[in-house]
Amino acid sequence: MRVSAKPTKLSLSALSIASRLSAVIATAVLILSACAPQQPSVPLLDDLAAVDSSVPPAKYVFLFIGDGMGLAHVTAAEVFVSASSDRIGNAELSFTRFAAQGFVSTFSANSYITCSAAAGTALSTGYKTNNGMVCVGPQGQTYKSITYTLKEAGYKIGIATSVSINHATPAVFYAVEQSRENYYAIARQLAPTGFDFFAGSGILKPTGNGGNDESVFEQIERYGYAVVRTPDGLRNVSASQKLILLQEESRSQEALTPAADRTGMDGWTLVDFTKTGIDRLDGSRGFFFMVEGGRIDWAAHANDAAGVVYEVMDLADAVEVAVEFYRRHPDETLIVVTADHATGGLALGIGSLPYELKPELLNARNGAGSRTMTEAEIAALNAEAGFGWTTGAHTGEPVPVYALGIGSERFIGRMDNTDIPKRILGAMGVRGQF
Ligand SMILES: [Zn+2]
């Protein structure tokens, strides 16, 4: 850090007070350092967003967002993995073994309890807004996603999700819209970005609410994107073409197959999206790649503990793909894994089963048979296994953040969700909109 050495505007008396003060401080520091063991200097919170040109920047950056993934959701997956090898413990997932970890406050501009649009806006732009809004501030001002700043700086940009590509969390990384419900207006903003890679289950309301507007797919084609719905289709896409991966039209356009319900014939997975995204984005320019595990939130809204566990493990598998990339580029890669908020008020432990948890029972939710599980059966399974819920909505506690690679130390400790994009840009050595 550079210190200015220009005392010209200070009066002499101010200088002498300053020099006396600094002598007192120096003595105090000497006494303190004689008494206490030497502590490493702790950076101030603001410094963690600063560009530091003395260290190499992160060139390849992944931001994984577990939608609705609180600490209890992560822990539920860990105890489930432990239980499947018959031992009590917190087995590490791909990202929970990252050395840099912290906590992220999630409140929105108008509520202690955020929605995905407001939290996503904070994660994407560094600004708080009201629930429901996509990169639009409480007074109607518009906020810029770091994806645009990074594209202007020459990076390739990728956005992938296990739900529809115009749902709130992916939307905040490319759209500016008063309401997250304006699916058509959000989708119309996708192709003009010129971002390199998009992936999701589908596009909601592609011809508008009434079905009479120009198809978003026609617009996407005009902008030169290839829309691919099968692995075979990928073979016909040139390396330079911008790409959108979606599910086949016969499958759900709202979300990928739930991780707990896979049978092996399930269409794309988040792992497929992550692998294909890396193939498309990798190169000398560097990239920023946001990957959302969107179904964790859905399973938690349904108070389905087993569904949550399988979706968290699914996100962990996608993160593992990024970790493999990190191993090939350890000095240039940053992986950040966090959540927008927690959902459901999940608890490991319930009153009717004190001091007991049977995570191995959640295995019953897995496989084709689970497609027919009713709400009552899911509730019974929660109760039998000892997992409790307080709400069908979101909750207001901080969420965890995990980071690996170059610049990961910026994500240690307590931070706000608005700090995340600032620290990502700082780690990338890009001076952005902040
Ligand atoms: Zn939600």
Bound molecules: zinc ion
Q: Could you name the CATH homologous superfamily?
A: Alkaline Phosphatase, subunit A
Shape: globular
**Alpha-beta classification:** alpha/beta
Give Rg in angstroms: 24 Å
Q: What fold name goes in the CATH topology slot?
A: Alkaline Phosphatase, subunit A
Sheet with the most strands: spatial strand order: 5-6-4-3-7-1-8-13-2-14
Total individual domains? 1
Q: Total number of β-strand segments?
A: 14
Terminal CA distance: 19 Å
Report the major sheet.
10 strands, mixed
Topology pattern, helix = H, strand = E = HEHEHHEHHEHEEHEHHEEEHEEEEH
Q: With helices defined by DSSP (H or I, 4 residues minimum), what is the helix count?
A: 12
**Beta-sheet strand percentage?**
5-15%
Keywords:
alpha/beta; Alkaline Phosphatase, subunit A; ten-stranded mixed sheet; globular; disordered N terminus; binds zinc ion
Characterise the protein shown here.
It is built from twelve helices and 14 strands. The chain is globular, with a radius of gyration of 24 Å. The protein is of the alpha/beta class and 434 residues long. The N terminus is likely disordered. The structure holds zinc ion. Zinc ion binds next to helix 9.
SSE blueprint:
Blueprint: H1 12-35, E1 60-66, H2 71-84, E2 100-105, H3 116-125, H4 146-152, E3 156-161, H5 168-171, H6 183-187, E4 197-199, H7 216-222, E5 226-228, E6 243-245, H8 270-281, E7 287-293, H9 295-301, H10 305-328, E8 333-339, E9 342-343, E10 347-348, H11 375-385, E11 387-388, E12 394-395, E13 399-405, E14 413-416, H12 419-428
Parallel strand pairs: 1-7, 1-8, 2-14, 3-4, 3-7, 4-6, 5-6
Antiparallel strand pairs: 2-13, 8-13, 9-12, 10-11
Helix pairs in contact: 2-10, 3-12, 8-10, 9-10
The structure holds zinc ion.
Residues 68, 116, 297, 301, 343, 394 line the site of zinc ion.
